[in-house]
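Hey team,

Filing this mostly as a record. A colleague (T.K.) asked me to run one chain through the structure pipeline before their review meeting, and I want the input and output archived in the tracker in case anyone asks later how it was produced. No errors, nothing strange. Just documentation.

Input sequence:
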Amino acid sequence: MFLFSNTSSQTWRCQVPRQRRAAPWPGVDNEGNGAVTFSLGPLSEQRSSKEGSLPWLMDERENHPDHWFRRVARGYWLEARTAAAEFVGADVDDVVFVSNATTAVNVVLRSLKLEAGDAILATTLTFRSFQTLWEDLQERIYPRGVQCLLMEIKMPILSEDQVVQQYDEFLASHPNVKFVLIDHITSPSTILMPVERLIPVCHKHGALVMIDGAHAPGQVKLKLNMLGADMYTGNFHKWLFTPRGCALLWVSKDHHHLVNPVNTPWRKKQSLGDQFFYQGTQDHIPLICAKYGVQFYQAIGGMERIIRYKSKLTTEGCDYLVKKLDLTSLAIPPSMESPNLRFLKLPRIPSGFGNKTNQVDVQCLEQDIYQNHDIQTIFDFLDGALYLRISVHIYNTMDDFVRLASVLKKYLDQ
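Output structure:
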């Protein structure tokens, strides 16, 4: 199985021989460091190391659960929070753990105290789960009269200036917007948004800003203390090798009082960290493993080497697909391309995968490719066209793109 998708809703393990899973650089122990995503494979294989062993942590917890929850877990959690904060360039007291970026966005939006006439803003490129959340907030959760707005962003995007200007003009014409959610990397459309430029625009118009960086940690260098956002969230289980259910929520010191966990904690009105740690009986191990995920990420080369490899492969592989299959790259400037994610438009719709409304049955197409060719793909629509999302990790090679092109050609030629 060759991984060409890195989704928040499902977990995929690269089922290829160990020598193929190994990180592609000299000096890495191919037997001990199989590189997988959304799992703790590299850590759990280090059974001789207390710090690298997922089974060790699970054994400690299960051997004496009371001791674990009352005396042990918090110490590990604090160590992990320190490592995570350092990795994203943040003060440790501003960082807490949640299970995923979706949870973090829900936490913040459900904490806002809005009144009739106020509005919140996202875009049509925002993660689809949050577009559904927008509907739920307006229909069921927020007071009547609160508006949940979606600004339409269409292709082509000619420059960062175009996006910045669009936000500026929209906010100027909607002075009631009190909160803006901006994707750091849009999903599934893979656009690296110019968040450093958009945050000051939103603040100029009096709106709080939260950055949804679900795909950012491990793919984009982060310095949250300097970014200027009010809140930020990012997953560690996408590109930093932790178990599923490990993400951080960063909250600016000025806004700690605004944010409350969805579950009212035992230690309400205490520190942000205490409120998010004391959430009843939960599995802290994925969160604790943030420390070890970061350590493994650094040990196999760190951001510079990892991104250099993945960006080069992504560019070369996508160029190959474009040439072989007549695909079209997303119409965005190079500065808005994410390091190892791409969105490629298909020249035509594969036949035989329509539904009752004559639209492509995307899930049926993905399932057919997976079952018959052992390739996990993600297709989605943008502006009425069908796109393929490419997602590259360190175990991928050019051979994967060659095989993918061969398989997709059969579907496009049907």
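Quick notes for T.K.: The first helix runs from residue 18 to 21. The longest strand covers residues 177-183.
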